[in-house]
Amino acid sequence: MMTLLDQADMNKLSSESTEAVAKGPDWPGWIAEVCRLIDAHDEGVPTLAELSAAVGVSPYHLQRQFKKATGLSPRDYAAHRRLDRFKQDVRNGESVTSALYGAGFGSSSRLYERAGETLGMTPASYGRGGKGARIGWAISDSALGRLLVAATEKGVCRISLGDDDQELIEDLHAEYPAAEIVADANGIKTKLAAVLSILGGDDSAAATLPLDVRATAFQWKVWDCLRRIPRGQTMTYAEIAEAIGAPKAVRAVGRSCAVNPVAVAVPCHRAIGSDGGLRGYRWGLERKRKILDMEQEEVKKTDR
């Protein structure tokens, strides 16, 4: 399951993937106006007919060009921004009920129905930094150093690589400061085994591994594209942006890779610069180089 990112990164990504993209030289100014109209709508989503009448283009043309520019349909963009407003208000101290209506949900049931698919926990728990959520973790040795896998009851929420166990554990606590975090090697041994299988060459394990992480709709598009890159191959950030229908959002693609919390399950190591060079990797460029070398060697052995 993929869920929405926190406010600080959301602000950066929203500007990259929506209005900043819409203001690019190849896009008409009405796309940014559509973003503003959706943001200003108090409840629900403006219809395509309403939006097209406001900016003077046909509904079909609006839908097609808006998605091409931002990577999202107007409806997806509206849902993305509404949840963004809810989370910002909760983090600023608003009660869940107040934030819920302020974001335009209209009823608590509409938000709670989507909680599993958008927040990864109940809205109230999210607002308290994960309070009430239980996260079990285990650490194992791997071909890339020490490997930490952490999971809620819904799925894996963290896969980290490093050299120091204590640092990996401290990073997990920093990510979920209010959650109950416990060592639970037995409880998540199946998930740990699946991650080790991915590292060992079994990408099919990634497709069935349940995830419980926060992500924007835009990030999910990037991560989904990354998961479709064949083992041993790479794509440039620009190629990924093109593939998800947002060719001007190259920097946003890079940021989406940088904030990926589940190493190897979402293979952000397969994203490279336009010149073929390796760019930033949150677990270190040497690990990025090593895992790419490992994968390419595996493919060579298979082809022999």
Word description of this protein:
- The protein has 304 residues and is α/β, with parallel strands linked by helices.
- 53% of the residues lie in helices and 12% in strands.
- The chain has helices at 7-22, 30-40, 48-55, 59-70, 74-91, 96-102, 108-118, 123-127, 165-175, 189-199, 204-208, 217-227, 237-243, 250-258, 285-303; strands at residues 2-3, 134-142, 145-151, 156-162, 180-183, 213-214, 235-236, 271-272.
- The strands form three sheets. The chain has a four-stranded mixed beta sheet with strand order 4-3-2-5, sandwiched between helices. A two-stranded parallel sheet has the order 1-6.
- A hairpin with a 2-residue loop joins strand 2 and strand 3.
- The protein is globular.
- Residues 1-25 and 106-119 have low confidence and may be disordered.
Strand order of the largest sheet: 4-3-2-5
Low-confidence stretches: 1-25, 106-119
Total helical elements: 15
Q: Major sheet: size, sense and barrel closure?
A: 4 strands, mixed
The best one-word shape is: globular
Intertermini distance? 37 Å
**Helical percentage:** 40-55%
Quaternary structure type? single chain
Beta content: 5-15%
Helix and strand sequence: EHHHHHHHHEEEHEHHEHEHHEH
Mean pLDDT: 78
Number of strands: 8
**Broad structural category:** alpha/beta
* Radius of gyration over all CA atoms, rounded: 20 Å
Features:
304 residues; alpha/beta; four-stranded mixed sheet; two-stranded parallel sheet; 53% helix; disordered N terminus
Write the layout of secondary structure elements.
Layout: E1 2-3, H1 7-22, H2 30-40, H3 48-55, H4 59-70, H5 74-91, H6 96-102, H7 108-118, H8 123-127, E2 134-142, E3 145-151, E4 156-162, H9 165-175, E5 180-183, H10 189-199, H11 204-208, E6 213-214, H12 217-227, E7 235-236, H13 237-243, H14 250-258, E8 271-272, H15 285-303
Parallel strand pairs: 1-6, 2-5, 7-8
Antiparallel strand pairs: 2-3, 3-4
